[in-house]
Amino acid sequence: QNIAQEYHSTIDKFSQQIIISQIETLLNYADRFYQRQFITRQKANSQILDRVEEILNAHLNNISLPDRQLPSVQFVVESLNLSPNYLNGVLKTLTGQSTQQHIHERLIEKAKERLSTTSLSVGEIAYELGFEYPQSFSKLFKQKTNQSPIAFRKAFN
């Protein structure tokens, strides 16, 4: 109402700034309302995190899939029947990570486990995890751990 009133009244040199301030206030209220849902739904949100972990564990532990693919944000949100933005907000609130970062973190954990407990080649582990190209796996691994998969294996042994 304030914006409409300002817009329809006599325009002066302050009108534009006042309208912008009113819009900014409206957006701040909307952001507050959006963020409040994550605070008031802590128990439900932790259950969502548990479900995300279950989905990723089931996917990453099922290494016998013939058409193995990397777990994606789309895969997780479809499994949970949530919107990508909502899941991202929940995970950011609980873990400080986006959905994609969380998936990458789980991939790296599984890769470290496979590198330290098996004698499989880096390429075989990459394919097990769902990477189409071992180079993509090595690049992500190095980006997240600051060392190559081979260097990790050598340091672990």
Concise structural overview:
The chain has nine helices and no strands. The protein is mostly helical.
Please provide a written account of the structure.
Helices cover 76% and strands 0% of the residues. With 157 residues, the chain is mainly α. The longest helix is centred in the N-terminal third of the chain and has 26 residues, at 15-40. The mean pLDDT is 87.
User: What is the N-to-C succession of helices and strands?
Assistant: HHHHHHHHH
Instruction: Give the total of beta strands.
Output: 0
Radius of gyration: 23 Å
Q: Can you give the helix content as a percent range?
A: over 70%
List unreliable stretches of 5+ residues.
none
Structural class: mainly alpha
Put simply, the count of helices is 9
Average pLDDT, to the nearest integer? 87
Query: Which band does the percent of strand residues land in?
Result: under 5%
Distance between the termini: 68 Å
Question: Which geometry do the CA atoms define?
Answer: elongated
The biggest sheet amounts to:
none
Characteristic key phrases:
157 residues
Task: Present the secondary structure layout.
Layout: H1 2-8, H2 15-40, H3 42-61, H4 73-80, H5 84-95, H6 99-117, H7 122-129, H8 134-145, H9 149-156
Helix pairs in contact: 1-2, 3-5, 6-7, 6-8, 6-9, 7-8
